[in-house]
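Contributing new complexes? Match this layout with adenosine-5'-triphosphate.
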Amino acid sequence: MGTAVAPGATELAIETTALTKRFGRQRAVDAVDLAVPRGAVFGFLGPNGSGKTTTIRVLLGLASATEGGARVLGQEVPRGLREVLPRVGALVEGPAFYPFLSGTANLERLDTANRYAPSATRTERVHRALERVGLSHAAGKRVRAFSLGMKQRLGIAGALLSPRDLLVLDEPTNGLDPQGTREVRSLVRSLAAEGATVFVSSHLLAEVEQMCTHVAVMSAGSLVAQGSLAELRRSGGAARVRVRTPDGAAAAAELARLGLDPEPAGDAVLARFGGATGDATPGPAPETIVVALVAAGVRVRGFAVEEPTLEERFVALTGEGFDVAQ
Ligand SMILES: Nc1ncnc2c1ncn2[C@@H]1O[C@H](COP(=O)(O)OP(=O)(O)OP(=O)(O)O)[C@@H](O)[C@H]1O
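Output block (do not edit by hand):
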């Protein structure tokens, strides 16, 4: 049936059309149009409660949409799920394990439940998955003795038991220490390098920025931005210059004369390229600005051109701050 989709549609690993999920009167997911290109590491970003988990649950058939549609690996959801789920590895809302069984025994049970997984190669598969997430040393321990981070990694190992075209990871670094976070990040990158599409939700902007090629931003159930990281950075408005100087007033006057829009910032003066509205009018080149400042007698201690950060961009879009701490 995979060939029944239009060729263009298969370029997307996940596609939703006006996807809506209501709980009573609340629109947890409101007319969301997601387009996740194949091969992307796609960060699904948004503050707590913005609708990420609900979207993921609908994509995996764990909840039904109120309106709108979704396709996963070219198949309509939920109709095509039976066919598509063996190709999808998922980690959603802290996986459930048997606490009195070891990590290895838990993964073996999971693998047994997959009717496409040959039993002859089970031990090897489980061993490799544990190795992949750095849990080999703890494989024999009972899961009740695992830390939250270890359970999280065991969940990812479960998603990796079979080769997958798509991995859906809901907040995979929740509860991980910095070392565990780094490991998951590099794991995600290596999975993508092997050709899988990775769809990963997070409320941590810094994390998404470090491991993703694409981002979608949710705010109160709506998708407020979507695209490659490079595209989103470009749409972030004008860059600015930061001039560190003891001659703030003179610097501001000269920057204003050049058509920039200076504002004092401690021992520096900031000025946006393209004027106060951040429009596309090209401003003077940075080197022209330095020459003009020096010619005007401004003592320049430091000069930097700063791109708007993604955080500034997303805070502007969602009206909320992101937790950027690791
Ligand atoms: N089963 C449910 N019944 C009622 N309301 C729900 C249900 N599941 C989610 N919601 C509500 O839908 C909204 C979106 O929740 P969701 O879990 O999708 O957000 P999220 O972005 O994943 O947040 P988090 O990072 O906290 O998991 C929230 O207001 C939540 O309370």
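Reviewers usually confirm one structural detail per submission. For this one: Confidence is low (pLDDT under 50) at residues 1-9, 275-279.
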